[in-house]
């Protein structure tokens, strides 16, 4: 047995190991079961589901429920499928995530490296913003959006998510930049770099891990949000989550479970994708700075 | 008016005054060391010269131009930080020329300056590496290179050697001194290490409690400390300070004190020191370890070597010297003997004291008496 490569691993006996892996396998199975049901049933014709046997593999494999959910299913009053709402979500989530991340980074930079009188109070208030329940701001926010003329539009939704996101993104970046050596900023000042040059050339290139954490967090939250989407959007600006709800609620006589399953998977895919692509940075980012290296 | 003028500068954080009225003036090409224990205000003063901290009152001028309100980038200074502060995302070459780039120097000139500095510091092979791939000594060199390339009016160093191991620190100290002799640029250097201060500087400001205790050449500060703090802080082992009383015997001023067993001893001051006017005054007598030595090790050019027999409490051989401890005036006193003197703890041994180098302080004000 090599000892060096596994120096960080706590040694366990093979018996204990067997128990651990069995338990892990059971838990994984338990957690993967719903996904299995969704995938399997989204690939069956409706008749097979109605005949019972939710757990069985399809007799006849079909992608028809997927294409129906994507482009022809009845959403509310129109048979557009989920496609337009998927794009609504994309054009909502991308700017909202990008802007809130950049603003959070700037806030963190100012709050740690360009301290000013009352900066801790400002940070405290921003932090407080993270903990305001969503429901509390619905009516004031609706009024605000009405006044600035963004009610029922995608930019309006971007704005709402931006406001809610800044608290978290500021928290992330402030804590990260707190560990960032101030001497570097001072050295850059003496070298002649200005406020934004230091941010762009010195701070941002070292912010990879925390940026990934921030992006994953914001993306999942904003993509999965239902309340703001349902409250502040019109039919043509609804995000995916609201459209999925409408797909399931819209009654045309029969409940097309296979289409619903396909739609639900579609709504979950982007967040799943972000986790798989950036997940390892996520863990790395959360652990960043915990071990000197 | 000097090249770098600090005039009545102070620094306060709210009600706390961390730097009291400070006046320092140095000429072009001098090597000023600000030395003192942590919290004495030396780094604050350096940051004020750099423009990283604002001046609460007073003024700092470089080349006769007031620096009030001038941002760090426009002061034509360069600074080496304790942590080196190399930009982790840039390679060594980019680190070195970043300042030039920010000042709008065209690329071919930047390249040339970078290569000149890399040759000077022998870091040519490292130019493409990232700071994370360098050893402590190499990082130190790069930090130096980044300062040198700017060709500034004043170099500022904030404890640049304190993160190096002991051997490397001594080597880099020598190198820094050579560099200063070659470049003849004005340098201001902060350290808490009094040896660094003495070896590097042409002028030392010893600081404590936000005050400059003494400003002078290394020799002045070492031989003529202005007060007991400076006397105790500069030199290693530090100066022996013990209570004594001035008396006049046959027109000759002497310091009276006692050995461990209570025997009175008198140490005559040289006549020209003029201590006779202080007849009867209680003092704290200051003797550096090297002025208390064995009979044959004593300075032959001195007219005032006085030998007393004292009990040896402890001997500490240190290779080149042996430090011998005894007691005078109730305080432990260390003498520096030659290494091969046959002296042992428990003996009564002759101690030769060179009173030409003795200094006296007031026990209450701790100020120098002359």
Question: What's the short story on this structure?
Answer:
The complex is a heterodimer of chains A (293) and B (370). Chain A contains 13 helices and no strands.
The tally of strands of chain A reads 0
CATH topology of the largest domain in chain A: MetI-like fold
Query: What is the overall silhouette of chain A?
Result: flat
CATH class of the largest domain in chain A: Mainly Alpha
CATH fold label of the largest domain in chain B: Rossmann fold
Rg calculated over all Cα atoms of chain A:
24 Å
Given helix and strand content, the structural type of chain A is mainly alpha
Distance from N terminus to C terminus of chain B (CA atoms, Å) equals: 30 Å
Number of helices of chain A: 13
Radius of gyration of chain B, taken over Cα atoms and rounded to an integer in Å: 25 Å
Number of strands of chain B: 22
* Helix/sheet category of chain B: alpha+beta
Provide a descriptive summary of the structure in words.
The complex is a heterodimer of chains A (293) and B (370). With 293 residues, chain A is an all-alpha fold. Chain A has two domains: 14-62, no CATH class; 94-238 and 267-287, MetI-like fold. Helix content of chain A is 71%, strand content 0%. Chain A has 13 helices and no strands. Chain A has helices spanning 14-42, 46-50, 64-72, 83-113, 119-130, 134-148, 154-178, 182-191, 195-203, 208-224, 227-232, 240-249, 257-287. Chain A is flat and about 75 Å long. The two termini of chain A are 27 Å apart. Mean pLDDT of chain A is 83; it is low at 1-6 and 289-293. Chain B has 370 residues and is an alpha+beta fold. Chain B has two domains: 4-233, P-loop containing nucleotide triphosphate hydrolases (Rossmann fold, 3-Layer(aba) Sandwich), CATH 3.40.50.300; 240-369, no CATH class. Helices cover 23% and strands 35% of the residues of chain B. Chain B contains eight helices and 22 strands. In chain B, strands 6-7-8-3-9-10 form a six-stranded mixed sheet, with helices on both faces. Chain B has a six-stranded antiparallel sheet with strand order 13-12-11-14-21-22. The model of chain B has no long low-confidence stretch (mean pLDDT 89). The chains are: A mainly alpha (293), B alpha+beta (370). Chains A and B meet through helix 8 and helix 9 of A and strand 6 and helix 2 of B.
